[in-house]
Amino acid sequence: MRIAIVGTGYVGLTTGVCLASMGHEISCVDIVPERVTAINNKKVPFYEPGLAEMLSKVVASRRLYATTDLVEAITRSEVTFITVGTPQSNQGIDLSYIATAARQIGYALRHVSDYHLVVLKSTVVPGTTDTLVCNLLEEGSGLQAGEFGLCMNPEFLREGSAIHDFMNPDRIVIGQWDERSGQTLAEVYKPFDCPRIFTTLRNAEMIKYAANALLATLVSFSNEIAALCEVTPDTDVNVVMQGVHLDRRLSPVINGERIKPGILNFLWAGCGFGGSCLPKDVNALRAYARERTVTPYLLDAVMNINNKRPAILEKLAEEALGSLRRAIIAVLGLAFKPGTDDLRESPALTVIKLLLDRGAIVRAYDPFVTSIPPGLGFDNLVTFCNTPEEVLRDSDTAIVVTAYPEFAEWDWTTLCNSMRHQIIIDGRNILRKVPWPKKVRYIGIGRVN
Ligand code: UGA
User: Fold this and answer.
1) Would you place residue 47 in the very low, low, confident or very high pLDDT band (cuts 50, 70, 90)?
2) Helix (H) and strand (E) counts in the chain
């Protein structure tokens, strides 16, 4: 099918590239000319494993091209996906990009004579597609919904495994204005063998928030247990959570083998969740609840617990060193999670800010991140290092913030010998099994150290 994708951010470009690789003809639309040029030159404007290779192939085979011309892209397509951002605002969620896209698509539909389906993929609060988006499409096009198709189709991909997630979906949720809309969208996903939920637009919108709110809740649940272990001698949150995981309802035994479902990855303690989705979506749902006079007790607690976690690492460092003034702190991992260069809402930024406020000298190492964008208040305040040796040499304390598995493979005996004070604070408890030399003070979270 011929498909236009409006917005070439993370979800838009991944969707475009994956749909093109399945044989669809894709026009990616973006208002930023440099981004469009980069895509046509087979360059991915962010890091996502495997995406550059796939983009290169689909651009070369002319299955995908990018343009700033929205009308042209829509007139040559049967389906248009809206994948623009829905950033957090003070009032909850900023729908201005969605509104602009819907308005422009509406006008573009005046140039389209055949039936055209518009699919909202961006995450929006319930009621956005059948009111704001629908109204703007109707106003712009002069048509009634039904004369054009309308779907809400949330995306469940994770950064770092976006292509795999898109190509192997757990489920496809199709919120539909009417049956024709849903059936047209089902054609796009025809090759996928997974459950499909055909439902209302609002259920589709709510499913996306509920799914992310559950993940955030599990992380905060684990972190609340960690906070309790931190004030209870002879407890260790890792052992406690292992015990919880072994409930067969969480890790079933099938044919004599214990299965470890991915959901268990959200039931470990750490220094908090970040990223462009979990914090934003939980906050949007809280604001949505309040606007409807519902107090979101659980979601409020989820965010309150999460907001408190990064400070624990600064506190542990201060307790270990006495004072952080002029102390050299090596921050290990900056991205909000391993395998991405994304710093959005990363707990590392909060940790660094707290350390700097206390007068510490901060160095950082991350396999994928080599700078902090200007304007976030860190300009020239953090020294980026290229190797573990460089970041740890003469440092007073190392703090692990991102759970990179390779950190556990480092030669810690040699690295610790190069430190001024051999103090390791493990904000993700990933170095527990390292055989620490006697002189090293290893401080995990979720226990009394
Ligand atoms: C998340 C969801 O996992 C996806 O299903 C969803 O499609 C996506 O948001 C989205 O809405 O677009 P993502 O933001 O890529 O995906 O990140 P996750 O892998 O979910 O990790 C989120 C955060 O939770 C990370 O900061 C991670 O470090 C943290 N986390 C995870 C913990 O703090 N503890 C854990 O036990 C697990």
Assistant:
1) confident
2) 15, 18
